[in-house]
Amino acid sequence: MSPLNRKLGRTIKTTRGQFIALVAIVMVGVVIFIAMNTAFYNLSRSQEEFYDDKNFADYYFHVVKAPLTITKQIKEINGIIQVTGRIQKDVPLVKDKGGRSVARLTSYPLPMEKEINQIHLLSGRLFDDSTDGVLVDPQHAQAKSLSPGDRLEIIVEGKKVSLSMIGTATGPEFIYPLKDASTMFPDPENFCIIMGPHEQVEQLVNMEGQINQVLVKLAPGADEEQIASKIEKILEPYGNLASYPRSDQLSNATMQMELDGLESSSRFLPMIFFILAAAIQFILLNRLIKSQRLEIGIMKGLGYSNRQIMLHFIGYALAVTTAGFVLGALLGIISASAIADMYALFFNLPESIGGINGAAVFWSWFVTSLLGVVSGLLASWSVIKIHPAEAMRPDPPRGGSRTWLERWDFLWGRLHTSWKMSVRSISRNRSRFAVTVLGVIAAVSIMILGLFADDSVDYMMDQHFTRETRYDYIVHFTQPVKGNELMNWLQWEEVYQLESALEVPVAISALQADEEMAKSEDELISGLEKQFGLRGIFNEDGKALAVPEEGILLSERTARKLGIGVGDYIRVESKLGIGPSRESSLKVVAVNKQLMGGGSFVSLETANRILQEKQLVSAVMLKVDINKSEALEKRLNDIPGVASVVSKDKEIDSIMRLMDSMLYFIGIMLFFSVILVLAIVYNSSIMGFNERKRELSSLRVMGLSEREVSSLLFKETCIQSALGIMLGLPAGRLLGELYMTAVNTDLFYMPVIIYPQTYLIAGLVAVGFVLLGHYFVIRKVKELDMVEVLKNRD
Amino acid sequence: MDREAIMRLDEVKKTYIMGEVSVEALKETTFEIFNRELLVILGPSGSGKSTLLNLVGGMDKPTAGKILFQNKDLAQVSDKELTLFRRQEVGFVFQFYNLIADLTAEENIALAAELVNDPLPVDDVLREVGLDDRREHFPAQLSGGEQQRVSIARAIVKKPQFLLCDEPTGALDYETGKIILGLLAEISREGHSSVIIVTHNTAIAAMADRVVRMRSGEIVELIINAEPLPPERIEW
Question: Cβ–Cβ of A420/B103 closer than 8 Å?
Fold first, then answer.
């Protein structure tokens, strides 16, 4: 080993605390980079492969009822490769204790090989024409501990039907099984997918020779919109209910949102760590070179070239990045599979593709090494300026100087001498100060980024479950019923309050001259009683809205998408799926915004008028005696026309359970930011300490106690950290907003809500670890050898 | 000598353990320091003179023996009390000044003044060391001699019993060195402190009230100067 390399080894040893801190920062960056990129890469690859493999549909069309033969006509359209007709229907599923949940019964034409949206068997066996039996999505099967051979009871056409479960399966459209866009999280307790052979399903639901959904596969480069409108024309006589492209398919859209979030975090989060590590390295090396001026002078005197000496110092930076990279890559690969496991909890993918993402490993190596070399090169540039003869003379004293703060006499005059020292020392070491402050800002904002999602979801839930929905139960009927049939429910001792509603799926468009050209949006309109109290509707400013006698409280999303404002008129076309579709026009009285779910609101009468009916209701909201909820559920479940009974408490419970898995993510983010604070504060404090060792020793000789000397050092740390934390809190909010803009979609929207206690927690955690980082340094004050330090010149 | 003794070192010994070797830096030594005297400790490097100074200044504790000051044995007190002793009773002047780079001349002195209850006025001290017009300057803007004067001012502002100077002229040129010595002589004559100068420069001995000559960790000679020379008449 050359003496220079041996010297490098010893330099690392003497600065081991700082070396470890730097390695930790690089390591965290590499871990995040590799783990997130690998997870993103594996997840999107398994999604793509699954989509390809199972022939995921490009476009979806829902109709009331159409003959199966219509698919042949659709297939004739230019640009269409394939068409599959099927039945998909939400039916009540009878739960073990008699409760109701929703089953999405989906039919599959056999043989399945060439069809669109094929299923992937996870356990048990696939169904065939000869025997009956259905498959269930794995999350529901797990939630209800179902295994092949168990039976499921559904209610179709008013009759209870028992189905035999033969296994579990998933499909490309059920990766993230959500009931509708208003539910944010899967709820396997109350919603399941039942997959069965087409012939069986059409008999079950009494739709022989009929379908209610058309799935198409388009030729590459085909004009999606044009083809869609052609198909809608063909399907028009059969009652168009909805049509949407793959990008709006609920499961796909949700997963895309997750992938987008992963992708953007995987890019910018690690960069923060890499750049900070490089900046600290630069400052550390600069300081190292200054303190080794004499040695550098001697080496030059002996005949070492500038290049050799510079390489020696760049070697230090490379040692940091190499160690950080190796450790980070190992941990990153392990974490990637942990992340994949976590996603497996949410997503029904047949198998997540494991494996190491070579590109992520390469790029993290490349970026860290590049930054290492650049910081080393920039820092060691000063080596050239050192002349051997000069270097061997003692350094001139460091130049103290005045700061801009001193212009304010009234303030400066009041400062204690020790504060003056700290302020001037900061102003002398501006780049170190800046990097430390930036580091603390980064750490605090990452902490907030980790914590805020919890607040946002909590806020949304709170708003939704206390302000927007005030009922305890919502009961849906399989078909609208006459409102007066429900009056006797009020006599039940369990029920305190009852309000009925009529939900009408509609297509909304602006009322304008050219009907053909009008853009339309699917929407759910809820008709509410005029004196409603179990539902809260608010405008964008959070002000409560009343249901108008005439007109509509249009949802913010639809208003925005159609460019409609208050006072405008809209055309409403009903798509209930029973009876012919009806058209009417409504005035927009106000725009409503709901945090969870969506939809527009009208009066019960208006909703009936849309259907040209009277006194129909499709759902009932109940305020009940919670102690008697079991008796109530039993009563409700005995009513054949009841499709589903949703208890708000149970809904909250199941969301809370899902939220628990977020704690894992929060923990990791906290851990990373804490490492950053610790490493940054330690590094900057120790540099300050080393630089002022002599001064501090002379102060000890003068009679300052260890505590007083430590508090001198602490003042500088204090200023840096306080500034970093103060700026880090709003920066965290900004980061959250940036993140949400990258992730929010039309379908899903999450506001950036950060509770005061989150700021407090982030601030306190940061303060705690600032103190810890600082503590490692002030321990060294005890070791100050007054006699030695004062004897020798640096 | 009619002055009273303010500190007494009684059979004091200092041994440093360095790895497997123990070095006897100061062999058994007994001597006294008198009130407001100018004491010069003379000796080549390694003679134990700095060790002796550090023991007197409360920067170190002896391996054996007693250091008696105001009825207390400094060899036995806690580190905290030793710090307090340094704070109230000792002013230190170093060869390389060791000023705080981020504080001006005046602030460096004020920093020390804040440590004691009844310091000298900073302005007076600045005037005394002749730096009235340089008070706003930072150490980097001062010459070596000026820095040493700030360092002396910083030491005497606390009105210490002992002003300990370790090679105070070691880093200075001849002329400047003489000015500094003049200042120290004046402090011992008119000030509150006993001034103890450690040096290997034998010429300085001529200005002392007493001279302690050391070699190999022990006092080899103690000279009492009946007629100390004023520093301006010293040549080296």
Answer: yes
Q: Which residues of A461-487 are buried (b: 16+ CB within 10 A; e: fewer)?
A: bebbbebbbbbbbbbbbbebbebeeee
Q: Do B138 and A401 touch (CB under 8 A)?
A: yes
Percent of chain A at pLDDT above 70?
Answer: 95
Q: For residue B127, give the H/E element and its range.
A: helix B122-128
Sort out which chain A residues have CB atoms less than 8 A from B57's CB and list them.
701
Residue B177 inside a domain? The answer is yes
**Which range among A179-183, A267-271, A709-713, B8-12 shows the weakest confidence by mean pLDDT?**
A179-183
pLDDT on residue A581: 67
Number of C-beta neighbours around residue A116 at 10 A: 25
Residue with tokens 């007994």: B30
Identify the three-state secondary structure at position A756. Answer: helix
> Which chain A residues are Cβ-neighbours of B23 within 8 angstroms?
none
Give the C-alpha separation, A723 to A717, whole Å: 10
- Residue A25: pLDDT over 60: yes
pLDDT of B1: 47
Task: Please identify among residues 771-790 of chain A the ones whose CB lies closer than 8 Å to any CB of chain B.
Answer: 786-787, 790
Q: Are B115 and A705 a contacting pair at CB < 8 A?
A: no
Q: Considering the domain boundaries, does residue B19 fall inside one?
A: no
State residue A577's pLDDT score: 65
The answer to whether residue B222 is domain-embedded is yes
| CB A37, CB A360: distance < 8 Å | yes
Distance (Å, rounded) from C-alpha A106 to C-alpha B102?
78
Summarize pLDDT for A273-292 with one digit per residue, the tens. Answer: 888 888 888 888 888 888 88
Distance CA(A770)–CA(A777), nearest Å, equals 11
DSSP A618: E
Residues 6+ apart with CB under 8 A from B171: B95, B96, B97, B144, B148
Say if residues A690 and A449 touch (Cβ distance below 8 Å): no
**Set of chain A residues whose Cβ sits within 8 Å of the Cβ of B99:** 397
Instruction: Considering only the beta carbons, identify the residue of B80, B84, B139 that sits closest to A397.
Output: B139
Two tokens, residue A518: 């009008």
* Residues on chain A touching B114 (C-beta within 8 angstroms): 417
- Mean pLDDT in chain A? 87
The answer to whether residue B151 is domain-embedded is yes
Locate the DSSP E strands across A625-715: 642-647
Q: Which of A666, A532, A640, A681 has its CA nearest to residue A592?
A: A532
Q: Do B98 and A698 touch (CB under 8 A)?
A: yes
User: Looking at residue B98, which CATH number applies to its domain?
Assistant: 3.40.50.300
Structural domain including B114 reads 35-65+78-233
Task: For A34-63, write each residue's pLDDT tens digit.
Answer: 988 988 888 888 899 999 999 999 999 998
Which pLDDT does position A726 carry in this prediction? 95
Structure confidence by residue, pLDDT tens digits, A518-541? 678 888 899 999 888 888 999 888
CA distance B101 to chain A (A): 5
Is the overall model pTM greater than 0.90, yes or no?
no
Amino acid, res. A618: S
Residues in chain B, pLDDT under 50: 1
| Backbone torsions φ then ψ of A744, nearest 5 degrees | -60, 140
**Cis check: omega of the bond before A67, within 30 degrees of 0:** no
Query: If you search the block for the tokens 């939220």, which residue do you land on?
Result: A659
Band of the pLDDT at A794, cuts 50, 70, 90? Answer: very low
Report the amino acid identity of residue A163: L
Q: Do A417 and B101 touch (CB under 8 A)?
A: no
CB contact under 8 Å between A695 and B100, yes or no, is yes
| Angstrom distance (rounded) from CA A610 to CA A580 | 11
Q: How many domains does chain B have?
A: 1
Query: Which spans in A356-399 are helix H?
Result: 358-380, 388-391
